[in-house]
């Protein structure tokens, strides 16, 4: 039978999991075995990125989901969402009225997984290290509002900020602020490979073939002391080359839980099935997809070209043909469910119109058809990405105003090429660092943006982003955030396409799946347990 459970969010804009379950019994592994989680995320150490799981480098949802299990942070986002709460800290808070001094007191008895005590000096070392290394992933920019870090005794850490930042507690919940063991991490150099030494709920052992981690075994850390309740002793995360292979493993019982990325066809089949022993958990999503532009590239330097693309791309048609009910059109870089969202792109460009696009190009004396290559990654956001770019190509070319080709590249090649400025136009996805509009604004538009984009808007950088961060009440930041979104819609360094839902499929004896992902697509393995199938 089908059964659906709705878990209502406690705060507006937070996510509501929906469980669509199929009756049956049985499981792929016994009660004492590790829970096996499948993913299509690929974990590769390359010449360009030799340290994929170093907190000072890692900046994608897959590697962050490794780190969140193993590296402890001062704060953590609670499983029901809402404001972050203390994790390695006993307490944290602003100690001044201007939100520029933030103090944390560590829990008593904190230890690294090797049993060595954690002190405030270790916290300072870890955060100063990420700020000093300034890796080309751009993750250090999350700590950009820090001026200095000081300690008082073994348990007190004080952050002095350059400017008010109401989002700072969220930033201390991200892996870049994770506490690492100074015995294992050099202060001025990234740690190559897949070894991790922290104080999180699990230790991790990597199984590596060549330069690729194919399995990560998470074992409950006996020295862990924090806010999280760990409901299992061991989890194996297995990396699959594609969603179909992962789905086959789930059906055979070799996998207990299946996470990102499932294909739309898999989600549709699981959501409508009335028999079997696999449950599908559906949650509203904060993931977005967008096109990024190298605004210095000759093909798209004139913003009229970018504006014409905004006037042509039909988001509802794109979503309907590729993702169906699993995504929604997006008209801002800030998703519709986040406080401060504004439909800036729709307000400026309205419904798709070849006539408007033609007039825009003509007014700027742009010869048509405009020749462009749209670049996408073949193995990071799921196999359906190719179909999405075929639709974009068709929409743009059918106008007669563009001559678009598309090119797919593996993630390990795609990311270094994008950061070196080798692409004029490329497709990306974004999972928020934390559920706040700042996480959809600053990483793209502030100094040291993670895409290494040449686009700079001094008003956004110097005035609007700092102003938005001064608002402790995030609703009061909406006017400033709307102005940022309107400026982006006019200049179009990025072109938002859609926001998606997120899914977890699990065998029906696995418990805790409604909290296996939080609003930032954080994988919370500690929530998973093994119960009774049925």
From TrEMBL:
Main localization (coarse): other
Protein localization: Cell envelope
Domain Solute-binding protein family: 84-450
Coiled-coil ranges (or none): none
Keyword annotations: Signal, Transport
Origin: domain of life: Bacteria
Residue ranges of the TM segments: none
Region forming the signal peptide: 1-20
InterPro entries in alphabetical order: Peptide/Ni-bd, SBP_5, SBP_5_dom
PROSITE patterns, per the entry: PROKAR_LIPOPROTEIN
UniProt record similarity statement: Belongs to the bacterial solute-binding protein 5 family.
PANTHER family listed in its UniProt record: PERIPLASMIC BINDING COMPONENT OF ABC TRANSPORTER, PERIPLASMIC OLIGOPEPTIDE-BINDING PROTEIN-RELATED
Protein name: ABC transporter substrate-binding protein
Record organism: Streptomyces hintoniae
Lineage summary: Bacteria, Bacillati, Actinomycetota, Actinomycetes, Kitasatosporales
